[in-house]
Amino acid sequence: MAIHNSDKWYDLTRATNWTPSYVSEEELFPDEMCGSMGIPMENWEVYDEPYKTTFPEYVKVQREKDAGAYSVKAALERAKIIDKSDPGWVTILKQHYGAIALGEYAAVTGEARMSRFSKAPGNRNMAMFGMLDETRHGQIQLYFPHEYCKTDRQFDWAWKAYHQNDWASLAAKHFFDDIITGRDAIGVAIMLTFGFETGFTNMQFLGLAADAADAGDYTFANLISSIQTDESRHAQQGGPALEILIANGKKEEAQKKVDMAVWRAWRLFAVLTGPAMDYYTPLEHRSSSFKEFMHEWIVGQFERSLIDLGLDKPWYWDTFMEELDSTHHGYHLGVWYWRPTIWWNPAAGVTPEERSWLEEKYPGWNSRWGQCWDVITENLLADKEELTLPETLPLVCNMNQLPICGIPGEEHWDMKVYTVEKDGRLYHFSNEVDKWVFEQDPQRYEQHMSIVDRFLNGDVQPMTLQGALEYMGMEGVAEIGKDAHAYAWLEKVKTSMKKAS
Amino acid sequence: MALFPLHSNFQADFVVQLVPVDSEDTMDWVAEQCAKHSVNRRVRKQSGVMRVRRHRTEEFFPRDMTVAESGLKPTEVIDIVYQES
After folding, report:
1. How far apart are the CA of A319 and the nearest CA of chain B, in angstroms?
2. Which of A214, A437, A462, A484 is the S-S candidate for A345 at Cβ 3.0 to 4.6 Å?
């Protein structure tokens, strides 16, 4: 029996839909799960996803991709890239896998929610493939780091991170629960696929792939580029949903969800991708600065896609653009200073040469964060490591769960904490936008306890640094973060000082 | 006498930090406790006296005022700023 080409039947099958007769539309698509904002089923029929595939095509293409990724991995195993790479590069891998692998798995839930509860049949169909994609991404990003577990316990955090109360785990989980697992189908379409996936993941998966190739880590470069080809498909689900919302008079509601997702994604990227690109990647392998990548992917591409859809730039766009010069520098300094509390070994990234690069890319860096690093460097040179390690917790934002940072330095010092008092409790936010997100739906967020709230509540026992490390899931010295180069970079500082004198 | 958590925004530092003090501590003592987590760690000691104020306000608390007398709430953010003595 001959099999028809898919172009003969695809339009019939891609949008399988029916009018329910045994249950009501509301029972089939309860608004809490669906989020269709009162727009009836027939108005969602016009949903038209830009990328289309059939199941046989999907299986064929995905199998080829996996064969490619896994064979590159197998071929390069003998190259022992982990042993030969700069420790700063290895750090990026640990940070990436831990922060991402189980987030991908959570995205299966988000795709599943769309697959069942979207009123748009094209969305339901594509989300089924999205579920398979995210399953692939979760599994492959557990499988790839697994071979390193036997030599380095920090790679175990690829699986372990999301099961812990480490502050970085809490930050990732708070964000992904807000835009994926705790959202209705249309919320997922807007916030996960459009806001996060089309907006930001290109940074981590393509921008970082460029640095990976530069660093000679072709296994990783190939892996994350391969992952991103799936992303380019399932990330397209949000756009058509937004078009329908706007066409049915729901632009304001749609805009708010986009604005929330983009801001929250920005802050998570600032703490993960920012330090990776500007500090952990060895200087000679940095193809662009974090700010330059952000301008290319976010300002250059994402902003255009917003306008093309008929949306506006988020209301805080100017603030966002200003923050490209500062936020991630504070986050890097914080992550490095509180390095025992994380599962990767941050590279300080502040040799004289690196500081010149930072000054070139971010004029004024030395008279701001540079001043803090001066004190840290002097302490290390004077053998006072203990002064470069923390004895308390930073205040973390009750939305993004990250340390509340400002501009340091004697000349330019500027810090602003935004505080809301509700029912006798103070909620602190790192900026007006995180506060605004909270105020859109306080009931959704108000019961969450940050790591600092938990500490003050007595959840961390004993109330010491060691108690905090255990609460966060650290199982001994082999797991806690340390300076990636064991302070070997001080030699370059000493050489530079000798030359100067 | 009661444990009283405050959040320290120390002059020239890059981050706000949790500093547990006591409700009977004076502002001078609070400033000292805050300094321990910033001075010689990421900022240099300055000349002058460290004064305490509610975050982003103008008026400093008197140096001998206690936390209990100040009206500060637990977990509130305070600024520690050097002033000429």
Report:
1. 19
2. A484
In single-letter form, the type of residue at position A308 comes to D
- Based on the structure, what is the number of domains in chain A? 1
Contact in structure between A185 and A33 (CB atoms under 8 Å): yes
Could A375 and B12 be called an inter-chain contact, meaning their C-beta atoms sit closer than 8 Å?
no
CATH of the domain at A425: 1.10.620.20
pLDDT single digits (tens) A177-192? 999 999 999 999 999 9
Contacts of B36 in chain A (CB under 8 A): 391
User: A36 in a domain, yes or no?
Assistant: no
For residue A140, what pLDDT is reported?
A: 95
Lowest mean pLDDT among A74-78, A418-422, B80-84: A74-78
Q: What is the pLDDT of residue A236?
A: 94
Asked if residue A5 is part of any domain, the answer here is no
Q: Give the distance from residue A100's alpha carbon to the nearest chain B alpha carbon, in angstroms.
A: 26
Residue B9 has its nearest CB partner, among A409, A417, A421, at: A417
| A379: chain B residues, CB-CB within 8 Å | 40-41
Whether residue A75 is contained in a domain is answered as: yes
The alpha-carbon gap from B63 to the nearest alpha carbon of chain A, in Å, equals: 23
Structural domain boundaries in chain B: 3-83
Do the Cβ atoms of A413 and B11 come within 8 Å?
A: yes
Neighbours of B29 (CB within 10 A): 17
Are the C-beta atoms of A409 and A135 separated by less than 8 Å? no
Picking from B18, B46, B77, the nearest residue to A417 by CB comes out as: B77
- Cβ atoms A114, A188 nearer than 8 A: yes
Give chain A positions within 8 Å (CB) of B14. Answer: 330, 333-334, 369, 372, 405-408
Render each residue's pLDDT in chain B as its tens digit; 85 residues: 789 999 999 999 999 999 999 999 999 999 999 999 999 999 999 999 999 999 999 999 999 999 999 999 999 999 999 999 7
CB contact (8 A) between residue B14 and residue A408: yes
Candidate from B11, B16, B76 with C-beta closest to A394: B16
Domain for residue A132, yes or no?
Answer: yes
Q: Does B13 touch chain A (CB under 8 A)?
A: yes
Q: How far apart are CA A345 and CA A340, in angstroms?
A: 9
Cβ contacts of residue A175 below 8 Å, gap of 6+?
A: A264, A265, A268, A400
d(CA A483, CA A478): 13
Residue whose pair of structure tokens reads 């009501």 in the numeric block: A24
Q: Which residues of A touch B54 (CB under 8 A)?
A: none
Residue A434 is part of which domain span? 48-500
* B57 part of contact set with chain A, CB < 8 Å: no
ipTM over 0.85: yes
- Could you tell me which CATH number the domain at B3-83 has? 3.10.20.270
**CA distance linking residue A374 with residue B41, whole number of Å:** 10
Integer Rg of chain A from CA: 24
Q: Do A372 and B75 touch (CB under 8 A)?
A: no
Contacts of A432 (CB under 8 A, 6+ apart): A316, A319, A418
Q: How many residues does chain A have?
A: 501
Shortest Cα distance, chain A CAs vs residue B11, angstroms: 7
Residue A155 pLDDT class (50, 70, 90 cuts): very high
